[in-house]
Amino acid sequence: MKVVFLLMPRLHLLDLSGPAQVFSTADDLGCPYQLHYVAEQEDVVTAQGVRLRAETVWPVTGPDDLVVVPGWRSPMLKGGPRPSRETLGRLVAHHAGGGTVASVCSGADLLGQAGLLDGRRSTTHHELQDELAERYPRTRVERDVVYVVDGRVVTSAGIASGIDLALHLVAGQHGPAAAARVARSMVVYARRSGEESQDSAMLRHRWHLRDAVHRAQDRIDASFAEPLRLAELARGCGVSERTLTRQFVESTGLTPLRYQQTLRLERAEHMIGHGATVDAAARAVGFADARMLRRLRSRAA
């Protein structure tokens, strides 16, 4: 998957480096990404004074690829960068061809200039939301959210929210366990948008920084349908069974077994929602029969 960053003058370094680090780390962990940096001129001066060198020729992109527009320093959107028709046309053509476009902070203004926000929900930095709504009245600006996904147009609030946006996209492409591994490697919280509930237990219970518990979760995530042997799990994490259980509960509110059951239940519900019988779903997620699954479903109801 290609990730193409479109760089504008006076861009914020973290708007760029946050998402770039997510995709780069994902690539290091076996989720393949190719990162490209394009601009209308080779030298791009950032808001923090660092000069970046970009390509002026765009790579060929397809439906599986992503174009990201980092934001720039500006007290207002008015007076910000005004890219050429060719650049805006690139954004439009990529989206029309089935690709995804995303923005961080004021980068939403470029998507607005390209007409990609029309008829869609969007967001940006809280200091720019009113102006975004005024400049592009055909978009519905969502407030107090980290990012908004509307089809293949993704906008985020500002600065560090680009990390959350990128983690969400990695989760969509490679699964929540992969996104959680990336977040752990970067020592950041794996989190989702403030506009929606955490729809994956693999991400929902990662709001902690305990390494042993993260390692235990990684192992359970990868094989939650297999029998859970606490002694082996603790040994693999380098702690005692008692210590692992205590830290796991303190970090997630669940025992390792209950966490495994939560993953099994979540997967089973997904399968049942797509036409599987309760018996078939129970077997697929590791239950010996459907009785335990039925009990867990009744508790969650």
Automatic annotation (TrEMBL):
Record has Metal-binding as a keyword: no
PROSITE patterns: HTH_ARAC_FAMILY_2 (PS01124)
Record-annotated HTH araC/xylS-type domain positions: 214-301
One Pfam short name: HTH_18
The name this protein goes by in its record: GlxA family transcriptional regulator
Domain of life: Bacteria
Keywords: Transcription, Transcription regulation
SMART domains with a match to the protein in the record: HTH_ARAC
Keyword Secreted recorded: no
Biological source species: Catenulispora subtropica
Gene3D superfamilies referenced in this protein's UniProt entry, alphabetically: 3.40.50.880, Homeodomain-like (1.10.10.60)
